[in-house]
Specification:
This protein is α/β, with parallel strands linked by helices. It folds into two domains: 26-110 and 214-329, D-Maltodextrin-Binding Protein, domain 2, CATH 3.40.190.10; 113-211, D-Maltodextrin-Binding Protein, domain 2 (3-Layer(aba) Sandwich). 47% of the residues lie in helices and 16% in strands. It has 16 helices and ten strands. The protein has helices spanning 3-23, 41-48, 51-54, 67-75, 87-94, 142-153, 173-179, 191-198, 207-211, 223-228, 230-249, 252-259, 268-280, 292-304, 315-318, 322-329; strands at residues 27-33, 57-63, 81-84, 101-108, 113-117, 133-135, 163-165, 184-188, 202-206, 217-222. The strands form two sheets. The chain has a five-stranded mixed sheet with strand order 2-1-3-10-4, sandwiched between helices. A five-stranded mixed sheet has the order 7-6-8-5-9. Helix 6 (142-153) links the parallel strand 6 and strand 7. Helix 2 (41-48) crosses helix 11 (230-249) and helix 11 crosses helix 16 (322-329). The longest helix has 21 residues, at 3-23. The protein is globular and about 60 Å long.
Length: 330
């Protein structure tokens, strides 16, 4: 073999090697979370334990801070997948969108807020809330809608029986409660536990326990993205399901250690107790399927709050369970 043929052969082998290596590169997915929350523990587990990489995905996480901003990022292709309240997909649907936001994997299945009082209330009754100064959540968001649903369940009209304030941005609610003359507030973990530890508040009830199962936080993507990236969506869902099973089978202390990099300013004992509280009330979904009963509960909560924008919100259009069912069955 002459030198020319030899070098040509070597070059071909080298190019084939590069092509083979290139074909094994992970697929990139841009994921936007509506806020940074301990409530989303299984998502951080999937990232930290490498479950996405095992499925051939390189997931780039960004916090998009708010439902409106998250959906804007999703619809404008700033992100591929959104972790956000499933009510946002209904709001998009009501705008006659040609490209729906489709819910394909559920992460949390209860409300994640707790009723926190400034003073200790060992004998608390829901009736005690009447005529109180109550710091509420953003109008139209899941925390506020679930809060109103629970209050009405206990014969309390949130807009007539409370001195309700809703003019504080989500990120500033804890500090506003601590420094203001509010008597009650809805808070997520770990903030609720931090308030207890520092003596700034007392957890006296759970909105998650009171409201039942609801698709509170869900992974969604545009209908067009799902159609064009079926394998990516399936791989993503498989990674989430792995994380859900791991969280369900693992104690709170070990989960806290795994996800602590996402909450560097929170003490490990607070992370542990917060996760234990969420696990105890079944907040973390144990599989990614969003069933129709949960969807109907969501619609009832929205309708009760006067926020359901259209009469018919078809489950079969806005929810895709085929991917999750295939992942679980296999």
């Amino acid at each position: 073999m002459n030198k020319v043929k030899f070098f040509a052969l070597v070059s071909c082998v080298f190019l084939i090697f590069l092509a083979a290596c290139g074909s094994n590169e992970n697929t990139s997915i841009k994921l936007g979370e509506v806020t940074r929350s301990l409530f989303y523990a299984p998502q951080y587990v999937a990232l930290e334990k490498g479950f996405f990489e095992e499925e051939g995905l390189d997931v780039e996480l960004q916090t998009t801070w708010g439902g409106d901003k998250t959906m804007t990022a999703l619809l404008s292709d700033g992100i591929d997948v959104a972790l956000v309240g499933s009510e946002t997909s209904i709001y998009v649907y009501a705008q006659d969108s040609n490209d729906y936001a489709v819910n394909f994997a559920q992460l949390t299945q209860t409300d994640g807020t707790f009723l926190v009082s400034k003073e200790a209330k060992p004998d608390f009754e829901w009736e005690d809330l009447k005529d109180s100064n109550f710091l509420g959540q953003r109008k139209g968001g899941m925390p506020q809608m679930v809060g109103e649903f629970v209050l009405k369940k206990h014969n309390i009209d949130p807009h007539n029986d409370l001195n309700l304030s809703q003019n504080i941005d989500f990120a500033n609610i804890p500090s506003a409660f601590a420094s203001g003359d509010y008597e009650y507030v809805q808070l997520f973990e770990p903030t609720a536990s931090v308030f207890e530890k520092e003596g700034n508040g007392h957890v006296i009830a759970s909105f998650g326990e009171e409201s039942g199962h609801v698709p509170y936080t869900v992974f969604m993507a545009k209908e067009s993205y799902m159609a064009e990236n079926e394998e990516n969506i399936k791989a993503f869902t498989k990674a989430i399901y792995k994380a859900q099973k791991w969280v369900d089978e693992t104690n709170a202390a070990e989960i806290a250690e795994v996800i602590q990099p996402y909450f560097e300013d929170v003490d490990l004992d607070i992370l542990t107790s917060s996760i234990d509280r969420y696990k105890g009330q079944g907040s973390f979904a144990t599989d990614p399927i969003l069933d129709e009963e949960e969807w109907n509960n969501l619609k009832n909560i929205m309708e009760e709050a006067g926020e359901l924008p259209v009469e018919d919100v078809p489950y079969e259009d806005l929810v895709n369970t085929e991917v999750a069912e295939e992942v679980i069955n296999n």
